[in-house]
Amino acid sequence: MTKQRIGILGGTFDPIHQGHLQMALSVLRSVHLDQLLIMPTGDPPYKRCQASPEDRWKMLVAACSCDGRLIPSRLEMDRGFLVYTVDTLLILRQEYPKADLFYIIGADAMMKLHHWQRFDEVLPLCTFLVCPRLGAAEPAAFQAEWRRLTRLGARLIQVEMDPMPVSSTEVRTAFSEELISSGLPVPVQEYCSCKGLYGLSGRLEHIDEWMDLLFAALTPHRFAHSLSVAYTAVRLARLNGLDTLKAEQAGLLHDCAKCLPLKEMQQIALDHHLTDDSTILSSGALLHSLVGAWVAEHTYGMTDPEVLEAIACHNTGRPGMSPLAMCVCLADSIEPTRASYPLLDQVRLLADTSLVRALLLSLEGTSSFVRSRGKYLHPRTQETIAWLKTLPENPEHK
Questions:
Q1: Phi and psi (nearest 5°) for 227?
Q2: pLDDT for 188-209, tens place per residue?
Q3: Looking at the chain, which residues constitute the CATH 3.40.50.620 domain(s)?
Q4: Among 102-106, 346-350, 368-372, which is the least confidently predicted range?
Q5: Which of 23, 319, 357, 360 has its CA 20 to 30 Å from the CA of residue 97?
């Protein structure tokens, strides 16, 4: 039986950025790992983190949802004492006694490997995957240290990949200058922006409570999706002269009930007379929007009727829906982490010029997709399509 191959990537991840993900995915491909544990430190004594451990954890979980082989691990975060790599490896060796462990380091870290705590105990516990790092060492010095470590018993594999394009320091500097950094995954960008991390001014009241509630209520994938919808809704609102704060609130909360069990959704709907449509009541995919508006009001404290309307009709649309609701409905279907589907690229392009035409094309694509598979399409979607066809490309906003 083939041994399981498990990678470990540690760091402060303050914040996790595209360079981290590029490194992780390159290693998964080139070394053929079965999974990669992404392991943030808690409060390291050697470096002061700008974001709290829990903020760094939520961002990391959202970022790792892009690939099921990336496994966030709290092994080092939840230990209430000074953590060394050797301690972590010894615990992992107990948890995975039959696995091969691969510890990912940069070329700069390899040059300092001999200074690690209990260095002689570390070497037999894992194979080190050495990734390139700009300015890490002169080639001759690097090769000399490689040979020396090998003689001491270290197992080293050099990973062929481009050096990380960005560092956490560069990302934090960009944010402090109020610049949007292309070095961050979109869910992480949105998290930083609305929480006011790294020098940004937080935009949303009660955002700490909201993030805790959403993170607890949603799967990692759904949490990342909600952040990405908020990011996209803000962009669409800005393009169309709408209230970006309301768009962000609706985007964040639009799926707040998505992961509730269907029976719980049905009970909320019946208790509060949200719908008597038996088709909607029997489908979590349809019901979660109506229940979500109720949860947004009664759990998250959202009282703005326009935001609640956008949440309530984000999945099927509704004839007469507001331009803000149209933004959220469209953002839900085109956000950057959304898996590809027919017409997605065309809808994204069209969204930059016409909110109405882009939403129309999106709903028409959904209608065709559902019907081609012999599944039920709720009449409200078709009614919304017919209504959108009567509108000018860019209707005036009320």
A1: -65, -40
A2: 999 999 999 988 877 788 999 9
A3: 5-158
A4: 368-372
A5: 23
- Would you state the structure tokens that stand for residue 105, as one six-digit string? 């380091």
CA distances (Å), origin 245, targets 9, 66, 193, 197, 338 = 36, 27, 12, 17, 22
Coil, helix or strand at residue 38: strand
**Which residue ranges does the chain devote to CATH 1.10.3210.10?**
203-388
Distance separating the N- and C-terminal Cα atoms of the chain: 66
Cα-Cα-Cα-Cα torsion 356, 361, 365, 371, nearest 10 degrees, comes to 70
Here the tokens at position 243 are 């209230």
Query: Tokens 């949802």 belong to which residue?
Result: 65
The string of pLDDT tens digits covering residues 301-336 is 999 999 999 999 999 999 999 999 999 999 999 999
| Residue recorded with tokens 């019946």 | 270
Q: Tokens standing for 225?
A: 């999706």
DSSP 284-340: HHHHHHHHHHHHHHHTS----HHHHHHHHTTTT--TT--HHHHHHHHHHHH-TTSPP
**Selection from 212, 287, 197 nearest residue 252 by Cα:** 212
Q: Which of 251, 224, 255 is nearest to 238 (CA)?
A: 251
What homologous superfamily is domain 5-158 in, according to CATH? HUPs (3.40.50.620)
* Burial zone of 95 (CB within 10 Å; 0-12 exposed, 13-18 middle, 19+ buried): exposed
Q: How many CA atoms lie within 13 A of 45 on its CB side?
A: 5
179, with CB counted inside 10 A (0-12, 13-18, 19+), is exposed
Domain at 203-388, CATH class: mainly alpha
Q: Are 253 and 307 in contact (CB under 8 A)?
A: yes
In whole angstroms, give the CA distance from residue 191 to residue 51.
11
Kindly tell me if the per-residue pLDDT of 176 is higher than 70.
no
Task: State how beta strands 35-40 and 156-158 pair.
Answer: unpaired
Please tell me the predicted confidence (pLDDT) of residue 375: 77
Residue-wise over 126-136: b if at least 16 C-beta within 10 A, else e?
bbbbbbbbeeb
